[in-house]
Amino acid sequence: MRGRFVTFEGIDGCGKTTVSKKVLGRLRKRKVRAVWTCEPTRTWLGNAVRRGWAEGAGVFTEAFLFMADRSEHVDEICARMGKGQTVLCDRYLDSTLAYQAAGVDEDLTAGMMDWLRRAHLPFLLLPDLTIYIRVRPELGLSRISGRKGRTKFERLAFLGRVARNYDALAAAEPQRMKVVDGSGPLDGVVELCLAEIGKIL
Ligand SMILES: Nc1ncnc2c1ncn2[C@@H]1O[C@H](COP(=O)(O)OP(=O)(O)OP(=O)(O)O)[C@@H](O)[C@H]1O
Ligand SMILES: [Mg+2]
What we know:
Elements (H helix, E strand, L loop, with lengths): L4 E5 L6 H14 L4 E5 L5 H11 L4 H24 L3 E5 L2 H8 L8 H12 L8 E6 L2 H7 L12 H17 L4 E5 L4 H13 L3
Parallel strand pairs: 1-3, 1-4, 2-3, 4-5
The structure holds adenosine-5'-triphosphate (ATP) and magnesium ion.
């Protein structure tokens, strides 16, 4: 049977990486053939995204780099699913919609999101399930305050806009995108995610 495609989304510090890796372990214990991946990827295209950040690339350059990385990643994800593996992906389409649309003037945000979504149409693989781990920007930032190499994404006002974009995305696609409260203890968040994934396996 074809595997499932599950993405983890939310603002910086909401717990995507920690939670998705724990979910991976739990699924494997249950003999689910699951694999973990992330965006930006660890390929040269993912490195190009990181280089764009380091060199202060503009919002459109950034969007194009993410899309190039994603278009190749989709092939990899499809191949995994074809082998019956369930793919857990730490950040995907919604990150680009939420973050890059927060990088333009507020009155252009909706148009930017719409354009980005349409630009993805020819190559996108839509997730079977997207788990949006929701926390307040203050909490996300406090969790990563000790981390080195903080990016411009991590500024509070910007993260507030990203959070609002995520909320709008979740409201627009309640079937695909499930909101999980990420502010409670880690084990509880993992359980909430497993409950959602259990519904689509
Ligand atoms: N529910 C939780 N309760 C307490 N601490 C948490 C919880 N979830 C994650 N953390 C901690 O918060 C920090 C950030 O988590 P993590 O790196 O998983 O976030 P992230 O969403 O992947 O962030 P980024 O978008 O920056 O990659 C880590 O130190 C992690 O251990
Ligand atoms: Mg992470």
